[in-house]
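Table S2 (text version). Query chain:
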Amino acid sequence: MAIPPVVVMAARAGWHWQWQQLMDGLGPADAEGNYRRPSSDYLQAELPNPPDLEFRKTDQRPCLIVSHSCPWAHRAWLVYQMRGLKNSLNLIVAQADHSAGRWQLDPPWLGCDSLLELYQRCGAIHSRRATVPVLVDPMQPKILGNESAQLVEVLNRWPTATEDLDLAPPQFQEGIQNWQNLLQSSVNDGVYRCGFARNQAAYDLAETALFEALEHVEASLVRSGPWLCGEQLTLADIRLFPTLIRWEMVYAPLFGCSRRSLWQFPQLWDWRLRFYKQPGVQASCNDKAWRHDYFGALFPLNPSGIVPTGPELTTLVNSHIPHIPR
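Corresponding structure-token output:
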């Protein structure tokens, strides 16, 4: 028997109201429905005294805590991997606890089972959000920083016994900052502004800015590639990669960033593969964890909780661009 239209309309109205309440907690918005990332009380990142690190035992070294799914943490993880910091800096990958809505530490570290407990152990005020990435010195213990844009700069100066890779040379500082200004709002945060938009107008605004920014990056790579700042890979590339490597797995299917497939940006497609092949990068990418955490945790965007099967990441990034008939 068909459901009466009035029942359908009432159910839709009720669900929409509940969806709005859930979205208030997931992704706050302004009066026009545009997603506004909550401001966080970040701690100023700092570099420990380098000579001190040389004499520490392995379990006394500072520790970088990241996660598989968080693109902001992925930035810091990439610098850790590409600069070979494992001999002077420990790494912990926190796990997302969907039911509790927090990051778990398994096994526990410094007597803490969760990231929230660790923040409190380090003397953080109760109102501070326990976020990744976070850099912790276990000797005090003390948080050395928890803001990704600052942490990648600190990790770029971190002492290493291997070949020194500088991802922010002085001659590229202006270019790196210019890319940061564009990418942070329109691309890195832009995909979230699409996914967490409350209405069509807010989505259209964010989606237009996102694809205009990608067109700008594509054109720049044509003019002055192979990297965003020219001949050398820099922090500008580090800040873009975590978003684009999640594109087909998360942002296109779940956040509605689907106007154009990434292969329709040939320069960006080649740039992503080039970056993916850099030493240490592949080890920081886990497509199964991305799908599990995004589709499994963002209930307002995926009420069924079904985690779709996606293409294998290695196969995807190595795929040839399809022939486009003219």
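Notes on Table S2: The beta strands are 63-67, 90-97, 102-109, 112-114, 134-137, 142-145. The chain has a mean pLDDT of 91.
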